[in-house]
Specification:
CATH superfamily of the largest domain: Aminohydrolase, N-terminal nucleophile (Ntn) domain
Largest sheet: 8 strands, antiparallel
Low-confidence stretches: none
Radius of gyration: 25 Å
CATH architecture of the largest domain: 4-Layer Sandwich
Strand content: 15-25%
Bound molecules: 2-deoxy-2-amino glucitol-6-phosphate
Shape: globular
Mean pLDDT: 93
Length: about 600
C-alpha cells in the first residue's frame, strides 16, 4: 500500500518523481519523501500529509541530478511524521532506501545493529535496511544489497540509491515492483500507473529478485547473484483509462464503466452458445472447490458458491483468506482452490494461495491486474479485464468477478457434458444494457441519499444470492461514508438483531423477485410493525413492496443468477452519493488503502 517510484535519466528528476507519487496516491499515504542523487551526494526531502506538502518543500530548490527515488507511506510501524517518512538513510547519508512491506525480524535486526554501534533514528522497520547495506558496503553496491536482504524476513519492495553510484537497485519479496523501460531512461515503481506517462514497456519483478538499473541498461538477478531472464510486457492500459474521464471521482467513473467492463470480460468467452475458457486444469477429477478471498472479493466468492453448486453441481466452501491460511486447512485429492483478488497483491490472499499450493491443491485465480503476484503464482486463471480500478472501494471488479464466476460455473457444467441454460447465456449477453438501465437511477438515488446522509446506522438485508449483495452494500457504505452499516440475512433479523429496529435504524432490503421474494415481504412486515424505515430495491414492475417500503429503488429484471450484478449497482450508487454529500473524498477514504499488501 505504500507507493514507490524511482527514475534514472535526463528528465527533471523532481517532476518525474512527484508525477509518479501523484499517480500512486490512491494506494494510501500519510507522508511522502524523495532522495535525489546529485554531484554533491544524496539530497533528501520529506513531508507529512499530502504530496503537495512535499512539493512545497522542494519548490525553488536547484535539484540537479540524474537519478532519484520517492515514496508515499501508509504507516505500518511508527506514526506518520517526517522522521518516519521514507526515504531512510544510513548514518553516513550515503545510502537511501524506500520500502513497501513489513520486516518481520525487525526487532532482532535492530538489536543486532545497535550492538554494532549503529544509531536508529526512526520508529520504522524500514530504516534498518539502509544501515544493513552500509554495514555490508564493500565497494560492490549490488553485493552489499544482496547480503543485507539475505538477513531480512518478511516482505519488501525496495528501491535503493548510493552516493556516487550511477544506478538504482530494486528488489522485491511479497510487495509488487515493476521496471519501466525507456529510451535512455529507466523507471522503477510499485505499479504500472506511476510510469505509464513515460513508457508502456514493463518488467514485473518476482520474489527474491534484484534489479540493477542504469539509464541505458538493466540486469535482473536472484539473491544468489544468478542472472534471470525477464519477459517485457507491453501494457495495454492507456493513461486516460487511469484518469477520471470527467467524473468527479475514480469511484464514480468505475461504477459507470461496468457495462464496458462486462463487455470486456465476456469478449471471446461465449461463442455459438458455448463457453470458451482456456483453463489448463483437469476438471474431470474435480470433487470440491474452496474459494478464498478478502473483503469485496469474499462477497463475490459467496455468490460464486451459489452459482457453482447450482449450475455445475460441485460442492463449494468459501473462506476468508486470512482465516483459511491459519486453520490448518484440509486439502484432498480433487480439491480446486480458487483465489479471487482485484489487485492480485493482497497479502492474506497470496499467503492462502501459497498455503493451499503447499498442501497439494491446484489453484485457479480470478484476478484483475495482469502480471500481479497472485496472477503469476496460480496454476491457471481468469483475468477480469475490467481495466484499472483506482478507487479504493471496489465496484466494477465485484460485478465482473460475479460474471466470471458464472462463466466458470457454466464452463464446468459444459465440461460435464450437461446442457447449458440458454436463458442465462442470453441474459449475460444483454447484461450490459440492463446495467446501463440501473445506472440511469443515479439521480433518484442521490435524492434518496439526501434523506439518509446523516443517519448513524443502516441495516442491509437480503436472502439467497442477494445476501452477499447486502454484505457488499453495507461494506461500500461504511468504507466510504463512515456510517456504520451491517449486512444480514433477512430471515436472521428475528433471531436478535430486530431488537435494533426503531425510527433511527433504517433497513435497506434487496427485494427483487426470486424464490425468496414472498419471505422477504414478511421480513419487511416484521420491521414495519416495529416502526422501522424501509428502503427497498425492487424490480421495475413490482406491485407488492411499494405498500411496505417508504423508499424504492427500481432495477431491471434479469435471470436470478444475474440479480447480484444488477442489484449491486444501486448499492454502489447509494454509498457513493451519501459519501459525496458528506463531503468525503471516497477515492481515498481514511485508514484504507487500495491494495492491502500487509497481513
Ligand atoms: C473493497 O471495497 C475493499 N477496498 C476491500 O475489501 C478489498 O475488496 C479487499 O482488500 C480485497 O482486495 P483484492 O480484491 O484486491 O484482493
Amino acid at each position: 500500500m505504500c507507493g514507490i517510484i524511482g527514475y534514472i535519466g535526463p528528465r527533471d528528476i523532481s517532476s518525474v518523481l512527484l508525477t509518479g507519487l501523484k499517480r500512486l496516491e490512491y494506494r494510501g499515504y500519510d507522508s511522502a519523501g524523495m532522495t535525489i542523487n546529485n554531484p554533491d551526494g544524496l539530497a533528501t526531502f520529506k513531508a507529512v500529509g499530502k504530496i503537495m506538502e512535499l512539493e512545497k518543500k522542494i519548490s525553488g530548490r536547484d535539484l540537479a541530478g540524474n537519478l532519484g527515488i520517492a515514496h508515499t507511506r501508509w504507516a505500518t510501524h511508527g506514526e506518520p511524521n517526517e522522521i518516519n517518512a521514507h526515504p531512510h538513510l544510513d548514518a553516513k547519508g550515503e545510502v537511501a532506501i524506500v520500502h513497501n512491506g513489513i520486516i518481520e525480524n525487525y526487532y532482532a535486526l535492530k538489536d543486532f545493529l545497535i550492538k554494532e554501534g549503529f544509531k536508529i533514528v526512526s520508529d520504522t522497520d524500514s530504516e534498518i535496511v539502509a544501515h544493513l547495506i552500509q554495514k555490508f558496503h564493500n565497494g560492490d553496491f549490488s553485493e552489499s544489497v544482496a547480503k543485507a536482504l539475505e538477513l531480512i524476513e518478511g516482505t519488501f519492495g525496495l528501491a535503493i540509491v548510493q552516493k556516487g553510484e550511477n544506478k538504482i537497485i530494486a528488489a522485491r519479496r511479497g510487495s509488487p515492483l515493476v521496471l519501466g523501460l525507456g529510451e535512455g531512461e529507466m523507471f522503477i515503481a510499485s505499479d504500472v500507473s506511476a510510469v505509464l506517462d513515460y513508457t508502456k514497456r514493463i518488467i514485473y519483478l518476482n520474489d527474491d529478485e534484484l534489479a540493477i538499473v542504469e539509464k541505458d541498461s538493466y540486469s535482473v538477478k536472484n539473491l544468489k547473484g544468478e542472472e534471470v531472464n525477464k519477459k517485457v510486457h507491453e501494457i495495454k492500459w492507456t493513461l486516460d483509462q487511469i484518469e477520471k474521464k470527467g467524473f468527479k471521482h475514480f469511484m464514480l467513473k468505475e461504477i459507470f464503466e461496468q457495462p464496458e467492463a462486462i463487455i470486456n470480460t465476456l469478449r471471446g468467452r461465449i461463442k455459438e452458445g458455448k463457453i470458451k475458457l482456456s483453463l489448463d486444469l483437469n476438471m474431470n477429477s474435480l470433487k470440491r472447490i474452496i474459494i478464498v478471498a478478502c473483503g469485496t472479493s469474499w462477497h463475490s466468492a459467496l455468490i460464486g458458491k451459489h452459482l457453482l453448486e447450482k449450475i455445475a453441481g460441485v460442492p463449494v466452501e468459501v473462506d476468508y483468506a486470512s482465516e483459511f491460511r491459519y486453520r490448518d486447512p484440509l486439502i484432498r485429492e480433487g480439491d480446486l482452490v480458487i483465489v479471487i483478488s482485484q489487485s492480485g497483491e493482497t497479502a492474506d490472499t497470496l499467503a492462502a494461495l501459497r498455503e493451499a499450493k503447499a498442501r497439494g491443491a491446484k489453484i485457479l485465480g480470478i484476478v484483475n491486474v495482469v502480471g500481479s503476484t497472485i496472477s503469476r503464482e496460480v496454476d491457471s486463471g481468469i483475468y477480469l479485464h475490467a481495466g484499472p480500478e483506482i478507487g479504493v472501494a471496489s465496484t466494477k471488479a465485484f460485478t465482473v468477478q460475479v460474471v466470471d464466476l458464472l462463466l466458470l460455473a457454466l464452463f464446468l457444467r459444459q465440461e460435464k457434458g450437461l446442457d447449458l441454460q440458454k436463458d442465462i447465456i442470453r441474459n449475460l449477453e444483454t447484461l450490459p444494457e440492463k446495467i446501463r438501465e440501473a445506472l440511469g437511477q443515479s439521480d433518484s438515488i442521490r435524492e434518496l441519499a439526501e434523506k439518509f446522509v446523516n443517519c448513524k446506522n443502516i441495516l442491509y438485508l437480503g436472502r439467497g444470492l442477494n445476501f452477499p449483495v447486502a454484505l457488499e452494500g453495507a461494506l461500500k457504505l461504511k468504507e466510504i461514508s463512515y456510517i456504520h452499516a451491517e449486512g444480514y440475512p433477512a430471515a436472521e433479523m428475528k433471531h436478535g438483531p430486530i431488537a435494533l429496529i426503531d425510527k433511527d435504524m433504517p433497513a435497506l432490503f434487496i427485494a427483487t423477485r426470486d424464490n425468496t421474494y414472498e419471505k422477504i415481504l414478511s421480513n419487511m412486515e416484521e420491521i414495519k410493525a416495529r416502526g422501522g424505515e424501509i428502503i427497498a430495491v425492487v424490480n421495475e414492475d413490482d406491485k407488492k413492496v411499494i405498500g411496505l417500503a417508504g423508499s424504492i429503488i427500481k432495477v431491471p429484471s434479469v435471470s436470478c443468477e444475474l440479480t447480484p450484478v444488477v442489484n449491486a449497482i444501486p448499492m454502489q450508487l447509494f454509498a457513493y452519493h451519501v459519501a459525496d454529500l458528506r463531503g468525503i473524498d471516497m477515492d481515498k477514504p481514511r485508514n484504507l488503502a487500495k491494495s492491502v499488501t500487509v497481513e
